[in-house]
Amino acid sequence: MDSKSFLAIVLSLALFFVWRYYFAPPELIHPPQQQVTTGKTAAPASPAPPRAALSPPSVPEVNPATLKTWSIGDLLYKMKIISRGARESSFELLKFKQSLKPDSPPIQLVRESNYLPLDVQLVTHRDLDLSGLDYTSSAPADEQVSQAKGSQNISFRGEIQGKLRITKIFTVKPGSYAMTMQVRIRNLSPKVFSDRLGISFYFKPYTTGERYNPSRLTYCVAGSNHDVSPKSFDKPGAIPPRIDWLGFQDNYFIQAIVPATQGGYQLIPSLINPDSPDEITRVVYLTNDFHLAPNEAGTYNLELYNGPKQISALKLAGHNLAASVDYGWFSFLAKPLLVVLSWIFAYTGNYGVAIILLTMMIKIVFWPLTHKSYTSMQKMKKLQPKIQQIRERYKNDRDKLNQEMMQVYKTYKVNPAGGCLPMLLQIPVFFALYRMLEQTVQLRHKPFILWINDLTAPDRLHMGFSVNFTGIPLLGTFIGNLNGLPVLTILMGITMFLQQKMTPTGGDPMQEKIMLLMPVMFTFFFINFPSGLVLYWFVNNLLSIGQQYWINRHAAA
Known about the structure:
Blueprint: H1 3-23, E1 69-73, E2 77-82, E3 87-97, E4 106-108, E5 119-122, E6 142-144, E7 152-160, E8 164-172, E9 178-187, E10 193-195, E11 197-203, E12 216-221, E13 224-228, E14 245-249, E15 253-259, E16 265-272, E17 280-287, E18 290-292, E19 297-308, H2 311-317, H3 331-348, H4 351-393, H5 398-411, H6 420-438, E20 467-468, H7 475-478, E21 481-482, H8 487-502, H9 509-526, H10 531-556
Parallel strand pairs: 1-6
Antiparallel strand pairs: 1-2, 2-3, 3-4, 5-11, 7-8, 8-9, 9-19, 10-18, 11-17, 12-13, 12-14, 14-15, 15-19, 16-17, 20-21
Helix pairs in contact: 1-6, 1-9, 3-4, 3-6, 4-5, 4-6, 4-10, 8-9, 8-10
């Protein structure tokens, strides 16, 4: 492969990352406004009420410590429900910490706020304050979910005397992050009661300061994910009427809402305190109009998932939730690579070692192709004097030049593109590893050795200093605030430089200089990539250097 071809591949790789992180616009979804029926004729959806009717309730600051609280959970999570509105005041994932500090608390999916999830409201009868009701329950203060008990129903009841009774029933299952929430509204008045019910969910990012782990609102239709940009929240139909699930997620965790019915609802997103550090994403599950005769009850069911984006746990929950682990175009490679990586980890107990061994396995698979690539480049290097003579002789006759060049390639059995295909075949593997290492919760907070204590975080050796590049063009874009020395990334750049020096080129001095700039560019690109990916690239460089040395030595013999 000549240097121009290789340069084009490298620049394409660099351009992909620049576009992926800095210039790709968020996907804005404009779904059709009409519901699609599936055999039965669905009741037409009630029009969305004015935004004012859906505004969050004006609630005073809630101090859960002053209210009766019920704790529900097992070894996986602990959910707390407060008596005021039977709302969720806390949801901790007990197997995942917020940070690497030894005393770090578990990940909290319900961040501190005056707006608490699972809030139930009436759209028309705003004077009937369901959020302010004090609910009661026969459940113990600390309900432990266990295999011995199986699935459990835990109910909370609130009542406005002579008007309404609201019952929330949570069905929890042992060993699962999924649960069912049923909301039952009963008319206690002597007249027909008509209204619409809104169930509000409030979301805040699960962690702060993670530049490469953005939180986002996503919905799934037929296993296909669609991110919803906040800019499209106010547009009609921002979320279509029939979905598999809607979730607030980052790379590792998700809170998902699964409508239990095929229709008869709307999902309406909005922002509270937009463009502020206390910004909250709100989603209202809005029912169609209901009309309840005296003593008649209406029931609404939702499936909820609050937990890690672990494929096994998501598959157990069903409803296409496993689609939230989305590796993009290269899922067909990323998922098998994750299976192999997990298999190696089961024997090594260290994901860093598993990445090294996986890199060696990939190198072995591609060894014949890369060997062919390097050998082709060696042959092309030896032919450069003859090719240069032909170019000088026929520089004014392009047809004759091409004819003579093809004859040389045929005589010496050299394919000028022979080195390109093997290199191109390895690029999808790199992209697949990148997406897999970026979004695999199993690797979160998993150490390798020494200073590399989180393979999903950028490589940093903390030395008590921090350098802020945010005000410097280009450097600010790629580096930002450098709070440590990226040792492994620098070593990766050095090995890439050595590999470039050993790789035969086409003999053009200018192109050789440009090629030697590639390691510098890649070092900048990789500074904020997961250290697990940097480790893969570093080990791959070492193996390539060894392979190139072996080929060069035999070529000189």
